[in-house]
Each structure stands twice: as C-alpha cells, then as structure tokens.
Design a protein that fits this description.
The chain is an alpha/beta fold. It is 35% helix and 16% strand. It has 13 helices and eleven strands. It has an eight-stranded mixed β-sheet with strand order 1-4-3-2-5-8-7-9, sandwiched between helices. Helix 8 packs across helix 9 and helix 12 runs antiparallel to helix 13.
C-alpha cells in the first residue's frame, strides 16, 4: 500500500534536525490532534514536563489544519527549558480512501494520523511515545523511557478486562489480549519493517463498520501477538462516567498510576461534570500557553446534555435534571 505521506513541519516551530540515534538525549512524544484538542494537549504536555524535571523532550504534533493561535501557543512551549516542539501538517488526501468508512463512525479523520507517525519520524528518533490528548502525567516517566525496546515493535497496555473479552471475540484475535491504543511506545524501524501501518489500514478498509473502535481495533489486528504488554500504570484508564453514574465526584485511588487516561465521553475539562478531576486538569492547564481558554462550562452537544441530566438525577437535583433533559430533546430534534 502506497501511503504517499507528506509531512511538513511548520518552519515557525522547531524544524526537523539531522537524523538522531540512540545518543539523542531527547525523548520523543507524539500527539495527533485537531483544533479542539490543543487546549487539553497543552495540559498533557505541562503535566509531563512538571513531573520529569531534567528530562529533555521533543513533542511532535500531527494535524491537518492548525489555527494561527494554536501555532503561536505551541511556539511558547518550545521556550521551556529542555523542550522542543515540531508541528507536522499532514495532507488529508492520503486518507481519501477512508472517507466512506467515516460515514459510519463518530470519529474524525484525525484518528488515522497516528498510523503515519513512525514513517514521518523515521531517521529522527529510534522510538516515540504516542499519547492521546486526554491523558495527564502524575509521575516520572524515567522507567518507561529506559525500557529496552530493541526487540519489540510496540509496547502497549491491556484494556479493561470486559473490553478485552468482547473485542478479542469480535475481532477473532489469535491471541486473547487487547490493548488501549491511547499509549504506545513505538520502535520506529521495527514498526515500519513489519508493515504495521499497512496492515492496520488494510483492516480498516476491509472490515469497516465491524470495527467499533476503528483504528484501535485495526491496530490490535495488525499487532495481534506481536505487541509487548506492560504495566497498567502507563495507561491507567479512568472512566469519569463510572464515578458520575454513582454520584461520586471525588477522585478514586490511583494506585501507582503514572499516565492517567481519561477515556470516555466525559473529560476532566468539563466544568459542568462537577468531578474533582477538574482540579487535577486545572493544575497543569493553568501553566500551559492555553491557560486563558476556560473549561467547558456547559454541555456542548445533545449527548453531553443527556449525560448531565442523568448525573443531576443521581444527585437528587430533579428539577435541574428535567431542564437539561428538555434541552437535550430540543437539541436532538434540530
């Protein structure tokens, strides 16, 4: 499969330097975002920098289109000690064959960006950590950084047991292990030589609507039996809906979590949720170049309106719950 990848780092930011090998002191981390997720990515980056003093980082940001405002704020990150940033603007035409697939999914085209991270960074770094932009780092990454992955394609973390059971059966995986792709430590050359991107894209094209989690399912198919599973602390799944449906607004115990992944429809930047995870997010958000962009004060769509109505009902705020349910019905009918 010819990917026709054209990565064009913004010259206003740190331009790609010469090829770097094992002696490169900088640890490379990649994000794939659209304009809506730069705010949360900023908090993710600040949480990493704050909890890893002395470690050099190069943050790669992959996107199709980026506003001037976000470009300027990303530049500000590069003024932090030990921090470099590179913006990779990707031509969406390389994913043109997937437009029909998106008709049956609520995902945007940006979900496919992570599939081209290895080929884009080939020659820049031997390994790269991919992170979703709804993750906060609460501890040092040194143990993860120091793991020898020379014999691996990618290091991943198991998904929840229930999800694993269902997806392994649905995808008919040969090995009964399923990972959440929000955190992946990738061996760039091994990924490329084993044609993981091509196999994942082929799965997307052939299975289409059968893939509930689109590229995550496709990556599990491509890496079936070939990924190395590591401890859950590197991708600690925290589902806020689990708490809010039980009228729990405090943070649960995090055990030894280092990377907290707020997977699910409710995020820690939703002020309307009333959950204490907002405080953790604000701690890092307030130090990022996006600090002036406030949290989501109210639901933005009918789905969030319905969830807020449900959460308020659980809290016994019946009148407020009814009001939001009416708003949900009106928004849905538009």
């Amino acid at each position: 499969m010819n990917l026709n990848i054209d990565s064009n780092p913004n010259p206003k930011l740190t331009a790609p330097g010469p090829a770097r090998g094992a002696s490169d002191p900088s640890f490379h981390i990649a994000f794939c975002v659209d304009n809506h997720y730069f705010r949360s990515m900023g908090a993710t980056i600040m949480s990493i920098v704050d909890n890893n003093p002395g470690q050099r980082f190069t943050f790669h940001v992959f996107a199709f289109v980026v506003s001037d405002q976000h470009r300027e704020r990303l530049q500000q990150l590069a003024t932090l000690p030990g921090v470099d940033t590179e913006l990779h603007i990707i031509d969406p035409a390389i994913f043109e064959k997937f437009t029909d697939f998106l008709k049956f999914s609520y995902y945007s085209l940006s979900i496919f960006l992570r599939l081209i991270i290895p080929s884009t960074l080939q020659g820049r770094t031997p390994k790269v950590l991919y992170l979703d932009a709804d993750i906060l780092c609460v501890g040092p990454l040194s143990d993860l950084i120091e793991i020898d992955i020379s014999a691996d394609i990618a290091l991943v973390v198991p998904d929840a047991p229930g999800t694993t059971l269902r997806r392994c059966a649905a995808l008919q995986l040969k090995h009964p292990r399923y990972f959440n792709s929000g955190v992946m430590l990738i061996n760039v050359e091994s990924w490329i030589s084993n044609r993981i991107t091509e196999e994942a894209m082929q799965a997307l094209l052939t299975l289409g609507k059968k893939l509930r989690f689109s590229d995550q399912d496709a990556l599990n198919i491509a890496l079936d039996g070939r990924a190395r599973f590591i401890e859950g602390k590197w991708n600690y799944i925290y589902d806020l809906i689990h708490d809010l449906d039980r009228n729990i607004t405090r943070m649960r115990a995090l055990d030894n979590a280092v990377l907290i992944h707020f997977a699910g429809a409710v995020k820690p930047w939703t002020d309307w949720s009333g959950h204490a995870s907002r405080d953790l997010f604000v701690r890092y958000h307030a130090r990022s170049p996006w600090a002036d962009m406030g949290l989501d004060a109210a639901p933005r769509n009918s789905r969030e309106m319905r969830m807020l109505s449900r959460f308020l009902w659980k809290r016994g705020q019946l009148l407020c719950s009814a009001r939001w349910f009416v708003r949900y019905l009106k928004a849905r009918s538009r």
